[in-house]
Design brief:
The chain is α/β, with parallel strands linked by helices and about 350 residues long. The protein has 13 helices and 8 strands. Helix 4 runs antiparallel to helix 5. Bound molecules: guanosine-5'-diphosphate and magnesium ion.
Length: about 350
């Protein structure tokens, strides 16, 4: 199976010659803008790592004992990485340094390797069809950012020269169809839509049929985001999957779960229902701009056992970045334990 390997504006595939002029426009989606907002989303976690954790090393010759470990645990829990990851780091530090003088470099290494394991993904590009259209189904709780994320994804594909058709499968609200239609015309994608209250599976069917007949490269299908406690939602997602698979047996090639980075535990457990019902393959973590809860990538990955593939960093079509674990860890740990004040 071929894989998409797009990197978008923050890391172009083609490196321009050294003397090539730099692009002049600084849109909100420019490399600097996106990275700045990504770093802002990591602010709280980075701050805790840089102040609270670093403070633990101030005492010369401190030993890795119960008191050190519980201080470390307390500091780590204050980041958004969650208690499970914090405990795993503490265990690793204990295993490697028990009864020795604290080695800050080794603690940093434990944090990095433990988190890297927990993100359990390498770069996770999107799966694609070997031939014919690639179908991407998008699901998630109401208001999480599905429709906006679809627009951003479609925008990326269109900018790469791919032809995109969108399926307005959230027929629950008329406004949802209008919202997607507006995005489609703005970014240059085709849309298949129905009246409010129409069967979402029939919209999905028509969208995929249109993608095949019109030789489109990508078909992205929006869905309604009602609560997972409603068994009709489960049935609806199942039916959508079945009608898609009738047209293309291996489709949908990706099922993306959109999660709101600012939402609490309740929204995460709601989303869990979607994930199970829809057979999700990856996560789009929306609204990471301005939330300062970037550490939440770790518990989100753990909760769903799915890779975070993209992060949403604003409301515009360009405000989507590919999530790259290595860069994420670099940003998180940049400056940690450094001598300069945080
Ligand atoms: N700041 C910010 N707002 C977002 C992002 N993604 C979506 N939104 C906003 O969140 C709200 C709900 O998004 P929408 O796509 O309609 O959610 P849906 O109900 O899941 O389809 C809208 O006001 C969007 O503009 C993001 O990455 N950052
Ligand atoms: Mg929507």
């Amino acid at each position: 199976m071929a894989l998409f390997r797009f990197r978008g504006s923050e890391k172009p595939d083609t490196t321009p010659a050294a003397d090539a002029p730099k692009p002049a426009e600084a849109s909100s989606g420019s490399e600097g803008g996106l990275l700045d907002r990504f770093r802002a989303g990591l602010k709280k976690t980075v701050q805790v790592l840089n102040t609270d954790v670093r403070d633990l090393f101030k005492q010369e010759g401190r030993l890795v004992d119960e008191s050190f470990l519980s201080d470390l645990r307390r500091a780590l829990v204050r980041t958004d990485m969650g208690p499970t990851a914090a405990e795993a780091i503490v265990k690793d530090v204990y295993a490697k340094q028990r009864a020795r003088v604290v080695d800050p470099e080794s603690v940093l290494d434990s944090i990095r390797t433990t988190l890297a394991e927990r993100l359990h993904q390498t770069d996770a590009p999107l799966a694609a069809a070997d031939s014919g259209p690639t179908v991407i189904l998008v699901t998630g709780v109401n208001g999480s950012g599905k429709t906006t994320s679809i627009a951003k994804l479609a925008n990326r594909f269109v900018k790469e020269g791919r032809r995109v058709v969108l399926g307005a499968g959230d027929t629950f609200r008329a406004a949802a169809v209008e919202q997607l239609s507006m995005w489609a015309s703005r970014i240059g994608a085709e849309i298949v839509r129905s009246d409010q209250g129409a069967d979402p599976a029939s919209v999905a069917h028509r969208a995929v049929a249109r993608a095949i007949e019109g030789s489109f490269d990508i078909c992205i299908i929006d869905t309604a985001g009602r609560l997972q406690t409603q068994s009709n939602l489960m049935q609806e997602l199942g039916k959508i999957r079945r009608v898609i698979a009738k047209l293309i047996p291996e489709a949908p090639h990706e099922v993306l779960l959109v999660i709101d980075a600012t939402a609490g535990q309740n929204a995460l457990s709601q989303a869990k229902g979607f994930s199970e019902a829809a057979g999700c393959t990856g996560i789009v973590l929306a609204k990471l701009d301005g939330s300062a809860r970037g550490g939440v990538v770790v518990p989100v990955t753990e909760t769903f056992k799915l890779p975070v593939k993209f992060v949403g960093l604003g409301e515009k079509a360009d405000d989507l970045a590919v999530f790259e674990p290595q860069r994420y860890l670099d940003a998180l740990l940049a400056g940690s334990f450094a001598d300069s004040p945080a």
